[in-house]
Amino acid sequence: MKIYLDDIRDPPSSDWVVVRTADEAIDLIKSGQVTEISFDHDLGEGKTGYDVALVIEQLAFMGTISPIYCCIHSANPVGAKNIMRAMESAWRYWNKRES
Q: How many helices (H) and strands (E) does the chain have?
């Protein structure tokens, strides 16, 4: 499943499942169904896209989810950079498990 995490915008195509909140994204990620995610950072009130990326990083460290490909469509440059760092860390964990 490909999820598009954004509280306002719609995805560029119908290939994506729209997810409006961080908690909704985290629930789907924990289910093991997510193969790709497109991140927005600022999600209105509450948690951010970075919070979601941190959960992915933690689950990758624990070995409880398969690799998730990502892209970032956020207009927040600092938030996007933080998301990218967390996802790069997750990929280091996934790569260690594969070797």
A: 3, 4
